From TrEMBL:
PANTHER family: ALPHA-AMYLASE FAMILY MEMBER (PTHR10357), NEUTRAL AND BASIC AMINO ACID TRANSPORT PROTEIN RBAT (PTHR10357:SF179)
UniProt-listed SMART domains: Aamy
Family classification: Belongs to the glycosyl hydrolase 13 family.
Gene Ontology MF: a single term: alpha-amylase activity
Pfam (any one): Alpha-amylase
Keyword field: Glycosidase, Hydrolase
Protein name (Swiss-Prot/TrEMBL): Alpha-glucosidase
Protein's GO biological process: oligosaccharide catabolic process
Domain Glycosyl hydrolase family 13 catalytic: start-end pairs: 14-392
Length: 530
């Protein structure tokens, strides 16, 4: 596969470090714990590990509030631990992707501490400070992603500072070149240590309207929605100048070989595409969250795959995401039968797949009793269903008291409702979801058509979603049933083939000719004859 790079033909696995493996008995996962579990990831067959933030942090937003970009929080370990982990990941033939959080720091970061001292502080302009509006209120109407005004008044200097997230997460001023240089140095610190790339947090937020104009009212707002949706985010993010900032970050990565820049971007397809940058000098992979946000409907998903493929800039590499630490678990959303179909879809679409830890064993939303809620979003906007804790619970390794995650009470509750929902049990069972993921990942490695082949749309109707993947002499038909009743997919006259893999584990190896019956909740990979 020399013609493609690792981040193109490989699969990314996201680890939320607090919840993967605890090695020191404090109930919170750590870097050494991840290292101990590397044999599992090798067995599973993923190619790169993305670890959510482990930098020193007061943990107001569980690490997305960084107090030092160039160190490790003692909860997670030390710089030696990350070096050891990185060395072992590389020894295992995998890559390491860090989470980079450049939009905001913690309010405890020394830069902000210095910035807030006085209006004349040399770091004042590193953040976004403004005088109150004439009535003494916030400088504009922008709303925080976690609810409430996005402006916090600071008594000491009589000005407000802007925070797109918590007030403990002040936004940096990326229009200031000194901020850019300092952050480039942080990138180089990790690149020099050998990390293979970054997932950049809320990259579309980095630049705000130069005049900080009010956002317009959203006429479609409904009260059950998050407060942020009261307004249309016209001026607070996705500004044209952001692309220059991203191109500069990309240029830092280009000083090294084969590193990857992934952007977290929640935008519709047409706006997402701009994040590949002019001449593809932006993010290598602007995260594609379409599958997370769409109704699970075959016609709808078929359209969005076609639309996404058609919108990609020439040479832009696609990618697909099925879950992350901010979204409800996919197995919960779709149910266990369709979670298998979703696995097959993720790992057969054209583009780099990102898998969220635990989705491979079908982890679901774990109920969190009110007294154990951790997520600051839930604390700010309670009871509306925004709690992210249920999707961040400890990885279920076995069926012991603390599910093999820790020998102490874990920081979030563990799930004991389904005895088979753990790695140890599913590894033994060839019909489990975990075994399906492992087989799909193996097949994806063996079959170039699946990892880097062309995507060819196939006409189907009802609950059937079908497409082909093709590469030098390999011609694979992917046919999925997103519904609960069997359908027959008609193929072009004279078409024959053989079933390579079935979600339900039925009829593998069977020959097909002219048409194929696709039972409810089935997904098939069929090798077509020439
Ligand atoms: C996006 C991250 O994925 C989320 O977890 C975090 O709360 C916000 N950015 C703020 O950093």
């Amino acid at each position: 596969m020399s013609e493609t790079l690792w981040w193109q033909h490989g699969t990314i696995y996201q680890i939320y470090p607090r919840s993967f493996q605890d090695s020191n008995g404090d109930g919170i996962g750590d870097l050494e714990g991840i290292r101990q579990r590397l044999p599992y990831l090798t067995w599973l067959g993923v190619d790169a590990v993305w670890i959510s933030p482990f930098y020193p942090s007061p943990m107001a937003d569980f690490g997305y509030d960084v107090a030092d970009y160039c160190d490790v929080d003692p909860i997670f370990g030390t710089l030696e631990d990350i070096d050891r982990l990185s060395a072992d990941i590389h020894k295992a033939g995998m890559k390491l992707i860090l989470d980079f959080v450049p939009n905001h720091t913690s309010d405890r970061h020394p830069w902000f501490q210095e910035s807030r001292i006085s209006r004349d502080s040399p770091k004042r302009d590193w953040y976004i400070w403004r005088d109150p509006a004439p009535d003494g209120g916030p400088p504009n109407n922008w709303i925080s992603n976690f609810g409430g005004s996005a402006w916090q008044f600071d008594e000491a200097t009589g000005q407000y500072y802007y925070h797109a997230f918590l007030k403990e997460q002040p936004d940096l001023n990326w229009r200031n070149p000194e901020v850019r240089w300092a952050m480039h140095d942080a990138l180089r610190f990790w690149l020099d240590r050998g990390v293979d790339g970054f997932r950049v947090d809320v990259i579309w937020h980095l630049i705000k309207d130069a005049e900080l104009r009010d956002n317009p009212i959203n006429p479609a707002y409904e009260p059950h929605q998050r407060e942020l949706n009261r307004l249309l985010e016209v001026h607070s993010c996705d500004q044209p100048e952001v692309h220059e900032v991203i191109a500069e970050m990309r240029a830092v990565l280009e000083e090294y070989d084969e590193r990857v820049l992934i952007g977290e971007i929640y935008l519709p397809i047409e706006r997402l595409m701009a994040y590949y940058g002019n001449d593809l000098k932006g993010a290598h992979l602007p995260f594609n969250f379409q599958l997370l946000q769409s109704a699970w409907d075959a016609r709808h998903i078929d359209n969005l795959i076609r639309e996404y493929e058609a919108a990609l800039p020439e040479g832009g590499w696609p990618n697909w995401v099925l879950g992350n630490h901010d979204q409800a678990r996919i197995a919960d959303r779709l149910g266990p039968a369709q979670a298998r179909v979703a696995a097959l879809l993720l790992l057969t679409l054209r583009g780099t797949p990102t898998l969220y830890y635990g989705d491979e064993i079908g982890m679901v939303q774990v109920p969190i009793p009110p007294e154990r809620v951790q997520d600051p979003w839930e604390k700010n906007e309670p009871g509306l269903g925004f709690n992210r804790d249920p999707a961040r619970t400890p990885m279920q390794w076995d069926d012991s008291d603390h599910v093999g995650f820790s020998n102490a009470e874990p920081w979030l509750p563990v799930d004991h409702r389904a005895p088979e929902r753990n790695v140890a049990t599913q590894k033994q069972d060839h019909s489990s979801l975990l075994s399906l993921y492992q087989r799909l990942l193996e097949l994806r490695r063996e079959r170039k058509a699946l990892s880097i082949g062309r995507y060819v749309s196939v006409t189907a109707d009802g609950d059937i979603l079908a497409f082909r993947r093709e590469s030098d002499g390999e011609n694979l038909l992917i046919a999925l049933n997103l519904g609960g009743t069997a359908h027959r997919l008609m193929l072009d006259e004279g078409t024959t083939g053989r079933v390579l893999l079935s979600c339900l584990g039925r009829n593998e190896g069977a020959e097909i000719s002219g048409s194929v019956e696709i039972p409810a909740n089935e997904g098939l990979i069929i090798e077509l004859a020439d």
